Amino acid sequence: MNPKSKRKQHGGTPSALAPEQLRQLLEAVHKYLPLAPDCEITVEGRVHNFTEDKARACFDGGANRLSIGVQTFKERLRNRLGRKAGRAQIIDFLETLVGMDQAAIVIDLIYGFPDQSLEEWEDDVRTAIATGIHGIDLYALTLIDSTPLVPAIKNGKFPPAPASTEKGEYYRRGAQLMYEARWQGISSTHWRRDTRERNFYNLMVKSGANCLAFGSGAGGFLNGYSFRKESNLESYMERVETGDKAFGFLMKQPDNHALYNRIKGEMKQGRLNIAWLAQQLGHDWEHAVAPLIWQWESCGLLTFDGGWIDLTLAGRFWQVTMTVNLLEWIKLNLKLPDFFERKNDNFNCPNPTRNHINGHDCKAR
Predict the structure, then answer these.
(1) Residue 228's Cα: distance from chain center in Å?
(2) Edge-to-edge strands, sheet with 104-111
(3) I need a surface site. Which of 78, 128, 224, 301 has the fewest CB within 10 A?
(4) Do the beta carbons of residue 269 and residue 187 sit within 8 Å?
(5) Which whole-number Å values give the CA distances from 233 to 236, 239, 242, 248, 264, in the listed order?
(6) pLDDT tens across 38-51, in order?
(7) What's the alpha-carbon Rg for the chain, to the nearest Å?
């Protein structure tokens, strides 16, 4: 087995464990898994149950990255989400972790809450930057039916969340504040203060890297298969104790998963090597993909740079939607069951530039 370059301990809030349990868990990771020398080992947690003793236990166990769920510093919004820690407690905890100087400290911030003003969002971003942490994710709120926020909105307790088009201004201001602080954007949603933050897990898993999943309900990927472990904890423990493979499901990924995963990974980073993509698709590139990309360019979502496209700020905001649409567009227009057999065929690869596709009918239907 190849050495693993990243390990993420998450799901079920690992910081709910006792300090000694966290230390034992991380030491077992080092003992039983073939880790690369520079392996990124992340522990996720929430402020209200992540004490300084637990942080030290993580560091003693070999963790070199802590990901703290913050979402917002605004207590009015945090109360609606049922978050227990207040603004002052969060800031103090983050500054304490940074001061320990043992790991990269990263948080997530969310925009698009019902009744969240643009000024409150800007204050969240500025506050996060001022704590001295190393990485920040800026995410748009996604409403999930199983969360308390959805019925609260439906019942009129809270106003509706902003539409996607309105959220764009929040993203623009967040990205602008990160730029003004000279933070580096290493994906469409993630920024870092310095090179201590690498964000290996999130970047690699989006590109289809193998992901070994342990524990009830954990999901992963391995050698072209996706899987999830048994989600019922009692059933999971029974199957483990009897030596059974405690899978909830095991599914073969599409034949072209390597192509799709590379597209997803590059788009996540705000770019796409269209010279490579055109070479892979061959003669099908011109009618299947080029018109869609030209349409996006005409809408200001991307620019051409040699054999690459770079997403604009607007493109980065719409990146997830664009990626889904691009993959669907390829699947609808191309029937390539023998894709990997014919990708090395000799053909005159079209020049994937704006000039080459200029003049074609580029309206997506």
Answers:
(1) 19
(2) 4-9, 35-46, 65-71, 104-111, 135-140, 190-192, 184-185
(3) 224
(4) yes
(5) 5, 10, 14, 11, 32
(6) 999 999 999 988 99
(7) 22
